[in-house]
Amino acid sequence: TRVTVSKQDIAGEEIEGALIQIRDKDGNIVEEWTSGSDGKDETGNFKPHVIEGKLNVGEEYTLHEEAGPAGYTTVTDIKA
């Protein structure tokens, strides 16, 4: 599997500094990263985070923002 996770502001620009986790159905952290830590693209914008080969099709996961970047609030957990 390949999943891209993007932390954006209201204008659709990638934001750095959010501590984000993907948790499995038991609450275990499968993936954790800080938005913006994947570097910048050729236009100078932060890249979204890519998760490859760690998530299983048909299983439920929760996207959890542990800490928001300065000046922003955290998002509500998203289950998918």
Strands ordered across the widest β-sheet: 3-2-5-6
Helix-strand pattern:
EEEEEE
Q: Structural class, from secondary structure content?
A: mainly beta
Task: Specify the helix fraction band.
Answer: under 10%
The gyration radius over C-alpha positions equals 13 Å
Shape: globular
End-to-end C-alpha gap: 14 Å
Summed up, the helix count is: 0
Largest sheet: 4 strands, antiparallel
In round numbers, the mean pLDDT is 96
Strand content: 25-35%
Strand tally: 6
Low-confidence segments, given as residue ranges, are: none
Briefly say what this structure is.
The chain has 80 residues and is mainly beta. Helix content is 0%, strand content 34%. The protein has no helices and 6 strands.
Structure, explained:
- This protein has 80 residues and is an all-beta fold.
- 0% of the residues lie in helices and 34% in strands.
- It has no helices and 6 strands.
- Strands 3-2-5-6 form a 4-stranded antiparallel beta sheet, with no helix packed on it. A two-stranded antiparallel ribbon has the order 1-4.
- A hairpin with a 5-residue loop joins strand 2 (19-23) and strand 3.
- It is globular.
- The model has no long low-confidence stretch (mean pLDDT 96).
